[in-house]
Amino acid sequence: MSKLTPPQHRRALGDTGLFATALSCGSGNWTAFRTGEGDKTVGESIELIHALFESDSVRFLDTSNNYGLGESERRIGLAIREYGGLPQDFVLQTKADRDMTTGDFSGERMRRSLDESRERLGLDTLPLVYLHDPENTSWDESMADDGPVAALVEARDAGVIGHLGISGGPEAMLRRYVETGLFEALITHNRFTLVDRTADALLSLASDHGIGVLNASPYGGGLLTRWPVEPGWYAYDQAAPALVTAANQIGEICAAAGIPIAAAALWWSLRDPRITSTIIGMRTIADLRATDELLGVEIPAEVWAAIETVRLDASTWQDAR
Question: pTM higher than 0.70, yes or no?
Answer without folding.
Answer: yes
